[in-house]
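Sequence in, structure out.
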Amino acid sequence: MRYDLNLLPIFVALMEERSVTRAAERMGMTQPALSNALARLDDAVLGQQEFDPATAERLLTIAPNGYVEFVLVPAVVARLQRAAPGIKLRLTPYGNDLVETGVVSGTTALVLGRVIDPPDNLVVQHVMDEGLACVVRADHPEVGDTITRAQFEGMKHVNIVPPGRMRAGLFQALAQQQLKRDVAISVTNFFAVAEMVAVTDYCATLPALICRRLAHDSRLKVLEAPVDLGTFPVEMAWHVRYRHDPAHRWLRNLISEVAAAL
């Protein structure tokens, strides 16, 4: 491993001055340039740390949106239990605001969901693509094994209003196909959708992996949407300072493997 020795005087200046501003002035650098140099120094140090998932003990905060928490996180936790029992996760909500999650400041390890217009200090990675399907009650009096466009547009619908971009994605998909939807009730989580659909003649349009989970409920049946509603991406993002942190890299790889298995 070759080290950039030019980083050492910057580190010394910061330790002695105890101020990024004063250290930058002392080195004849701008504050952004000095901050970038410090980030490279962190990368060099973190990259040399050893990490053994079987024995490591860490608490990492992640911010999944409601979809990811329902579909992906349980499988991630199951893998952690087997491979890294000392790694604990703390979940914080991911809605519309990246800043509120703590990922922009680095207090949160990563966010999982849709990442739109990230700031320059975040790294964004595509995790998977997801489609959409419909759910109705198993003994629906009007809908059999398929649902037509006319049936879809003539039915009442259960809408889910999670924070974030997933809601916008569904509305955009419906608008692109000029598919009308008469919303009778809006709920805030996927469990509520299942209960609403099970006791009414309403329909819900949900991510396909959510529908796969709900298909185990004998009260419900999952159908293809009457038109192609396309897909939406699922992404994760993290602060640049964690690019080479071994524990963070290991967790990100595990999440990618779990998503691929889905």
